[in-house]
Design brief:
By secondary structure, the chain is α/β, with parallel strands linked by helices. It has 2 domains: 174 residues, Rossmann fold; 94 residues, Pantoate-beta-alanine ligase, C-terminal domain (Pantoate--beta-alanine Ligase, Chain: A,domain 2). Helix content is 40%, strand content 20%. The chain contains 11 helices and 9 strands. Strand 8 and strand 9 form a beta hairpin. Helix 7 packs across helix 8. The structure holds pantoate (PAF). The site of pantoate has 10 residues, from strand 2 and helix 7.
Length: 282
Amino acid sequence: MEVLKNKKTLQDFIERQKEMGKRIGFAPTMGALHKGHLSLYEAARADNDLVISSIFVNPTQFNNPEDLEKYPRDINRDILILENSGLVDAVYIPEVVDIYPEKAESQHYDFDGLENEMEGKSRPGHFDGVGTVVEELFRQVKPDNAYFGEKDFQQLAIIKKMVEKKKLPIKIIGVPIYRAESGLALSSRNQRLHEDRRDASKVIYKTLKKVNELFKINPVSEIKEKVQDVFDNQKGMQLEYFLIADEETLKETDFFYKGKNYRAFIVVIVDGVRLIDNMHLD
Ligand code: PAF
């Protein structure tokens, strides 16, 4: 596996691969790799000649400096995971200056309102930061296909919108959420949970499955009350939000309209760790 530590080495590498006509699959990350990331590489492996990942903790997408500082970083462990997986041909580990040559600041995007829903309400500027770094990485890596986890479903929708608006010749592929045996969606933040809290967190997945059973035959307002009750009775957990939204617009719905696709979204704070999850409703 090639470890590319700056823009120049990446560019030389990409140029060689393009000359050989290789199809590039790309999965950007912020490191702290886990099996959820490996599922992105597996999907990329299946569709491309070459799989590239990046590891870059993007400062512009953190609206809280403490969160940026606390973000888990262990580059040697990550490189080892990538090497041992045998799924990745090259990893790009840029410095801040490779992505932001002048000043680490975001561009402003119009994602047709997707940015104002859910995470956009509690994390102002977050999606501008994501759009900025992903657009720059796309311009440098020049992938044919790019892979993002459905756990961050709003992020996935926003990246699809950016690619459409900027007319970038890249196909964006959403990869289903990778769950631990308990049902907990894998996330780098899970590292900050004590073992017993990780186990208790399976209630999040259980609740989403219950919501799927109740949806279409119960009013959304009642489902929301039931979800609130579940978390009111969980020690050390606070429900930040739960809602059901149209998968395309991400706008919250109070009703089920035939012909539309819906998804349940949830954010729970478990002992100070913010866990997000979602589920397609059928
Ligand atoms: O999902 C992530 O890890 C990040 O938001 C991404 C897409 C790598 C951009 O920094």
